[in-house]
Write a structure and sequence with these properties.
Helices cover 8% and strands 45% of the residues. The strands form 6 sheets. Strands 4, 5, 8, 9 and 10 form a 5-stranded antiparallel beta sheet that branches. Strands 13-19-18-15-16 form a 5-stranded mixed beta sheet, with no helix packed on it. It is built from 5 helices and 21 strands. By secondary structure, it is mainly β. One of its GO terms (molecular function) is ubiquitin protein ligase binding. It comes from Channa striata (Snakehead murrel).
């Protein structure tokens, strides 16, 4: 910070020892210098350095829409610099800065241990901010100050056992048309772990069933939730970050995703340790249903800073946990791994036929989660019958009636 000659100070600034450092973590030492240069002889009383870290939330809520604020302190430090090391006192006990010379004092402090800090954050209704400030006191004048912000990023390791465990769930929804039952749709889904880092792929195994008369489309998206708490009121922001979609599913059919991937974009890590601000993520798997609300299934995920190492990622306990989760989600592993019996060829004309005479054609539109998708065009499906092929048999006809071999002379 450069001051005018009227303030008798030409230079007053705070510099960190490593200006190129992008962030600090718990237990790291923050150090630097405070520099002073006077334009003309200047008397000072004292110089101190303070550091602070605070989470702050401000938003409007409630019936009267009044402003609500709340703060939580995570760092507080203060150090009085020893001016007598470089300056001499006058008869009044003040220190004298001589013009044309730059004075420099060092400072340093250690950040609190793990568990007592949260990562820096800046959002629409709140922030977590850390800074160091130098305060210069002069006789008969208001104190001058300068400050520098620094970033804090707490490590979040996705190799923790609870984040390496799989996650699964299932959900179904009944569909009505003008209050008349119209079948139902269902989703069963599983991911192999809950912790991910930027650039990793989330592998999805899912089964979608459609017994209603409409054409539905399966989709998946990574969503973020930013929650701000102030005076007992919460403000929540949701955002869709990246998405994938599957094929249309007509009435009476089902579809399966085996290893379908969605990549984690560049994201801020999950913010889980703050008392008034929370940032978490989820994998939303859903069915787009014309004329009805979406069927939505959410699997929580955590975005970390230390990527998956690939060592010791699966133990016997985790495998058993995966089996239990799979059974709770409708035996996900059974339909994904066990072979099914061969189909009955005589029923092909029934399987390939649309059950209802009126089936809506889905808009080819991938709208946001707040869309109101209404209606749809209808088509008449002709009842087409196919000539059945020969009956299926497990007997090898060549072994029963071996082919005749002709000898060539």
């Amino acid at each position: 910070m450069v001051l005018s000659a009227g303030n008798k100070l030409r230079l007053f600034q705070l510099l960190f020892s490593d200006p190129g450092r992008s962030f600090y973590s718990s237990g790291d030492k923050v150090s630097g210098t405070v520099q002073l240069e006077a334009a003309q002889p200047c008397r000072v009383i004292g110089l101190r350095v303070t550091a602070a870290g605070c989470a702050r939330v401000e938003h409007r809520g409630g019936k009267n829409r009044r402003s609500r604020r709340q703060e939580v302190e995570y760092l507080k430090y203060e150090e009085e610099l020893r001016l007598e090391e470089l300056l001499s006192k006058d008869s009044d006990g003040c220190f004298l800065l001589q013009p044309g010379k730059t004075y420099s004092w060092k400072f340093g402090f250690e950040l609190p241990p793990p568990g007592r800090l949260v990562s820096s954050y800046k959002g629409k209704f709140g922030s977590v901010r850390y800074y160091a400030r130098a305060v210069l006191e002069r006789p008969s004048q208001q104190a001058s100050q300068c400050e520098q912000e620094f970033e804090v990023e707490e490590p979040l390791d996705v190799n923790q056992p609870d984040l390496l465990a799989p996650s699964a769930a299932s959900k179904q929804q009944k569909i009505t048309c003008m209050f008349i039952p119209d079948g139902q749709v269902s989703i069963s889904a599983q991911i192999d772990k809950k912790g991910f880092c930027e650039g990793e792929d989330i592998t999805i195994n899912a089964k979608f069933e459609n017994t209603c008369s409409r054409i539905v489309v399966p989709k998946a998206a990574i969503i973020s939730r930013h929650t701000y708490l102030a005076d007992g009121y919460a403000k929540v922001q949701r955002q869709k970050l990246s998405a994938v979609r599957g094929n249309h599913i007509i009435s009476g059919m089902c579809d399966m995703w085996q290893g379908k991937a969605i990549r984690v974009p560049k994201l801020k890590p999950s913010l889980l340790g703050c008392d008034i601000i929370k940032v978490d993520y989820a994998l939303m798997i859903y069915l787009h249903i014309p004329g009805s609300e979406k069927l939505i299934l959410e699997l929580p995920i955590v975005i970390g800073t230390i990527p998956f190492s690939g060592v010791g990622s699966r133990t016997n306990s985790m495998s058993s946990q995966a089996r239990s989760l799979g059974s709770q989600a409708g035996s996900m592993s059974s339909w994904a791994s066990l072979p099914s019996a061969p189909p009955s060829y005589s029923n092909i004309h029934r399987d390939m036929r649309v059950d209802g005479p009126r089936t809506p054609l889905l808009y080819d539109y991938d709208g946001g989660e707040d869309d109101n998708d209404e209606g749809g065009l209808f088509m008449s499906a002709p009842e087409t019958y196919y000539t059945p092929p020969p009956a299926y048999s497990e007997v090898d006809q060549d072994s029963v009636n071996p082919p005749q071999v002709l000898q060539a002379f």
